[in-house]
Amino acid sequence: MRKLVYYVAVSLDGYIAGPGGEYDFYPLGDEEQAAAYSSWINARYPETVPHFARAAEGLADAPNRRFDTVLMGLGTYGPGVAAGFTSPYAHLRQYVVSSTLAPDTDPAVTVVPNDPLALVRELKREEGLDIWLCGGGILAGALLPEIDELIIKSYPVVAGSGIPAFSGAFDPTLFGVADRASFDNDVTVTHFTRR
C-alpha cells in the first residue's frame, strides 16, 4: 500500500514557515556546504524540486524516485500561483485541499474542497509510488491519522513564530527514528516511521 509521507523543512522551534509564509530564513551554510546538502537531497527526492527549477538543478529528466503524487494546502500552493506557477509539480499528480480555490485554476491540479482524509485513503489504495504531503501545518494536522512517515529537514534556526508543522487538536502520535543524516551546514534530515 502507498504511504503518506510528510516531507518538510522545520525550524528548531517547529515552524515550517514564518508568519507571512516566509521560508527564506533557513540557513544553508556556505556555497560548498549548500551544494553538498542540495546534491544529497536532490539525489534522493528529485521529484520534490518544483517543475520550473528542475532544469537548473540538473533534474529535467530525472525520474520520480519516491513520490508520484503531491498533496498541499492553499497556503503552500498559493505563493506559486501568485508567482505565475499554477502547476508547480507538473511531473506529479497534484492535489490542493481548499474550500476557496477555484476548481479550474489549472487543468493539471485537482482541487479538493473538503474531506482530505477520504482523499488520502482513496489514493493509498491505488498502485504507485508514495504520496508527498508538501504542507501546510493545518492540513498535516488534519491528516495526522493517515501520515505513515515523516521526513523532517531540521534547520539550525529559531523562527520565533510562524506556521507550525502541525496544527490541530491535541493528539500525541508516536513515531520512531528510522534513519538520520547530518550535514556540515548543521542541517539534519530525520526519517521517522509511525509506531
TrEMBL record:
<dbReference type="InterPro" id="IPR050765">
    <property type="entry name" value="Riboflavin_Biosynth_HTPR"/>
</dbReference>
<feature type="domain" description="Bacterial bifunctional deaminase-reductase C-terminal">
    <location>
        <begin position="3"/>
        <end position="169"/>
    </location>
</feature>
<dbReference type="Pfam" id="PF01872">
    <property type="entry name" value="RibD_C"/>
</dbReference>
<dbReference type="InterPro" id="IPR002734">
    <property type="entry name" value="RibDG_C"/>
</dbReference>
<dbReference type="InterPro" id="IPR024072">
    <property type="entry name" value="DHFR-like_dom_sf"/>
</dbReference>
<protein>
    <submittedName>
        <fullName>Dihydrofolate reductase family protein</fullName>
    </submittedName>
</protein>
